[in-house]
Amino acid sequence: MHILLIHQAFTALDEPGGTRHHELARYLAARGHKVTVIASPVSYLTGAAASLSPAPFPPAQEEIVILRAYTYQAIHRSFVHRVFAFISFMTSSFFTGLGVKDVDLVWGTSPPIFQGATAWLLAWLKHVPFLFEVRDLWPAFAIAIGVLKNPLLIRMSLWLERFLYRRADRVMVNSPGYVAHVTERGAQRIELVPNGADPEMFNPDDEGAAFRSANHLKNKFVVLYAGAHGISNDLGVVLEAARSLQILAPEIQIVFLGDGKEKTNLQKQAEGLTNILFLPPVP
Prior knowledge:
Layout: E1 2-6, H1 20-30, E2 34-39, E3 64-68, H2 79-98, E4 105-110, H3 114-126, E5 130-134, H4 140-144, H5 151-167, E6 170-173, H6 178-184, E7 190-192, H7 209-214, E8 221-228, H8 236-248, E9 252-259, H9 263-269, E10 276-279
Parallel strand pairs: 1-2, 1-4, 2-3, 4-5, 5-6, 6-7, 8-9, 9-10
């Protein structure tokens, strides 16, 4: 089977960020399937640009092809700029997808929900099934945190959400709590595939000695947050905890590893806290 995945925020194993889809692609490739991924050349985690050329992959993953489609590079500037980034990828990934031949399934993943529209249209034109994956409830989340306020945009987004649920041959969710939401809005066939980790990627005998030494963490109890530093992550709560722990439990060191729109603000809020360490993202 040849699977076409439309995923703006796709992260390869040699890039910082969540690698759920690259690991799933490797899993599928190991079972004889071919996976073509259309992704953005702009990192969703850092906002930095990458090469427009296909990403390299090890010989063992020769059944995985990663194509990079143009994306407006301003994803961390403001909500309006983020929408421009989403729409630019939605358009460019569609034309890139038209050139991918002999596809048996088109897989779209949300958020952002716009790429779901691209995946549905490509599936319709290629006369193949459409798999729609829901990793977060959009636009419900954007409305809840106040980044989506325009009544017209809200109505259009809610309409698109229902449109995609009803036309998907199957809806995949990563949280049990999403099942009721997508069902109420028209999804028919739903599969739960939770987030997870491949234990073979980790060495249980490695106690992180090199990491501790390089970051002056010897003899510290390390609390590590690895991921995006955005509005939705609410990491200010961790800083509040750090202020209390600095006196009550000075042996605890909190490490923020990653990047995002709120990282600069968090670093300013953490000034004066000796038990907070900010590190750049790593693959």
